[in-house]
Amino acid sequence: MSLFEKVVSLAKRRGFVFPSCEIYGGLANTYDYGHYGSLLKENIKQAWFKKFFEQRHDLFRIESSIILNPKVWEASGHVETFADVMVEDLKTNKRYRADHLIEEYFHNKGEDKVVDGMSAQQLQEIIDAENILSPDGNPLGKARKFNLLFETEIGIIEGEGNKAFLRGEIAQGIFLNFKNIVDSMSPKLPFGIGQAGKAFRNEISKGQFTFRTLEFDLMEFEYFFDPSLNDWKELMDYWQCEIYDFAIESGVSAANLRWRDHQDFELSHYSKGTADLEYKFDWGFKEMFAVAYRTDFDLKNHAEKSGQKLVVTYPDGKKVVPHVIEPTFGLSRFVTILLMDTYREQEVDGSTRVYLELPEHIAPVRVAVLPLMKKPELQALAKKVVGILAPLGNIEYHEAGSIGKRYRKQDEIGTPACVTIDFDSLEDNCVTVRNRDTLKQERVAIDMLLNYIQVA
Fold first, then answer.
1. CA-to-CA distance for 449 and 443, rounded, in angstroms?
2. Which 3 state secondary structure label does DSSP give 217?
3. In angstroms, what CA-CA distances link 407 with 259, 353, 355, 420, 424?
4. Which domains does the chain carry?
5. Averaged over 8-25, what is the pLDDT?
6. Average pLDDT, the chain
7. Distance (Å, rounded) from C-alpha 404 to C-alpha 350?
8. Using CA atoms, how far apart are residues 353 and 360, in angstroms rounded to an integer?
9. Phi, psi of 330 (to 5 degrees)
10. Phi, psi (5° rounding) for residue 424?
11. Please, where are the H alpha helices in 136-272?
12. Is residue 304 classed as helix, strand or coil in its secondary structure?
């Protein structure tokens, strides 16, 4: 069984991620987050907000609407250009992204070829030259564009005038609130506006677990600057370092990361330069986070189409349309990456112990409190310990099953420490603290327990 398969199995067994609508046979490219998956996502998000917002004074938060006026997507260029190239199996009528089929074809040949962003004609030429077939071994139809925006309708009467789109990215909500933030917060350049939230893309091809889904979570901010005062390449370098540090602090191994600059044919319609922080999956290096130089494309287009002045005015009266550096963090796919990258197996007493080596601030459960047996006196003391440890965050209490099985469960959800209350605890007022990574067990006085775990 591959690492990826082990992680998918663990994710369902331990309540991280479930296939959506499973009792009805599921729905392709959709997943639900269970108890521990929800906690893991929230911890990642809070770590992101803490690093980039709470510990700085030049970034401002918003939370924009998911459904936006259709004029927004026309101005941003998404109605015209937000598309993937699709090919269809001529026998089964299944649809696939042409670039994914081509990249997988070359990956199986041991070659690393990037074709994302190529035109339909360019992709068709590669398919023809290599005689690439569908995954079912059938000929493919002609490559053609397929728009990724999800359409919906507002109101009870059908018609073109009621058409709207679910957002395909969360950046546009930030640009739409640029003037509001400038007017209400009076920020000085350079400054950023960011948010975390859901985006939707009508993906053609099958995703790999939460790596590519129809509905997904992003964390993103736009960093506005005056191009006459700041060099965009220097800012790109700065934010690449910050993005990389966040990945490492969250528990990803540096050995599995690399930066890759986009080639000209890959660049989005709004970008003058983009770099992806890629992670080494079983199926090759793929995008995890990214940073892009969007120039003044978005603000200029929204100003033109809306008739509003989207500028920053200096004290001397000088007005400037800022340019933008955009750091983007894929939260949904980062869940899969963390589960894969922190997955560990260890032989202990003739059996395989599985654990997630998640950092303490990311792990869904900080500490598990476990009375050795279901005895009233042990249960009472254990619940007292839960109250003492409450300031640490999410504390779990479990009393059912053998202590060994309870340890194994906590290992598999990545709990850094387990606290066991036994009969000696009733006499010496001490508990046993078990470390997830080292398996070291140490007796600690209950009145010193909170400080011990905080500094351990």
1. 10
2. strand
3. 38, 10, 10, 10, 19
4. 34-71+156-163+170-339 (3.30.930.10), 83-147 (3.30.40.230), 365-455 (3.40.50.800)
5. 94
6. 91
7. 14
8. 19
9. -85, 100
10. -65, -30
11. 171-176, 178-185, 232-249
12. helix
Place of tokens 């690399």: 258
**How many CA atoms lie within 13 Å of 397's alpha carbon, on the beta-carbon side?**
17
What are 325's two structure tokens? 């550096």
One-letter identity of residue 253: S
Whether 432 contacts 417, CB under 8 Å: no
> Helix or strand or coil: residue 436?
coil
Sequence letter at residue 139: P
Residue with tokens 């890759």: 260
Q: Is 245 exposed, middle or buried (0-12, 13-18, 19+ CB in 10 A)?
A: exposed
What is the rounded distance in angstroms from the CA atom of residue 227 to the CA atom of residue 294? 12
d(C-alpha 182, C-alpha 288), whole Å: 31
Judge whether residue 334 has pLDDT over 80.
yes
Residue identified by tokens 């960093």 is 223
* CA-closest candidate to residue 128, choices 117, 141, 111, 112: 141
Residue 152 sits at φ, ψ, to 5 deg, of: -150, 175
Alpha helices in 78-231 (DSSP H): 78-81, 98-108, 120-130, 171-176, 178-185
- pTM greater than 0.90 (yes/no): no
Q: What are the residues whose beta carbons fall under 8 Å from the beta carbon of 8, sequence distance 6 or more?
A: 17, 209
Query: Is the CB of residue 442 less than 8 Å from the CB of residue 433?
Result: yes
Q: What is the pLDDT of residues 90-133, one digit of tens each?
A: 888 787 888 888 888 888 888 877 777 787 888 888 898 888 88
Q: For residue 3, which of 258, 330, 341, 414 has the smallest C-alpha distance?
A: 341
